[in-house]
Design brief:
Oligomer: single chain
Number of helices: 5
Structural class: mainly alpha
Helix content: 40-55%
Largest sheet: 3 strands, mixed
Bound molecules: iron/sulfur cluster
Number of domains: 1
Strand order of the largest sheet: 1-2-5
Number of strands: 5
Length: 145
């Protein structure tokens, strides 16, 4: 089984697994990818530029014949917000620079967890008592059993 994630999404998904609140509008997609992560120990993750498996179930994504910066046939409010686009692109670059991954990379979720622990450690994201740290610990423990 494989899920698709945009580069800035894995850290957020890990934080939600560790107890962070979901945003609401994309809950169905987040729930879907978390279910795949928690039930398939061999899950592959493909890092994509366009709308991913979270976006595809997002309440804010709508069909648009002109498409948008993040998909040929759809758009959403954040695809029309220049500041949000800049922020996402910057977040994506930080993820790539830290992990060495790129668009099109396919990696086992268990390997991605190890990569995040090493390259984007909790110390860089608020410390060891954050949802991100708890999510990494929970996933690490799951893959160790
Ligand atoms: S608002 Fe757009 S970018 Fe954000 S999750 Fe929804 S579809 Fe994806």
């Amino acid at each position: 089984m494989k899920i698709t994630l945009r580069p800035y999404h894995p850290t957020g998904v890990v934080a939600i697994i560790g107890g962070a609140k979901k945003t609401g509008f994309n809950n169905r997609g987040v729930d879907y990818v978390i279910e795949q992560i928690m039930t398939d120990p061999d899950l592959d993750v493909e890092i994509v530029h366009e709308y991913d498996d979270i976006c595809k179930k997002c309440d804010r994504r709508v069909e648009d014949e002109n498409g948008s910066v993040w998909g040929k046939h759809h758009t959403c409010p954040s695809a029309q917000d220049e500041k949000m686009i800049e922020k996402v692109n910057a977040d994506n670059e930080r993820f790539f620079s830290a992990t060495g991954l790129q668009f099109g990379s396919v990696i086992k979720m268990r390997d991605l967890v190890e990569l995040l622990k090493e390259k984007i450690p909790p110390a860089e994201r608020g410390g060891s008592n954050t949802p991100y740290a708890k999510g990494l610990a929970k996933l690490s423990g799951m893959y160790a059993t």
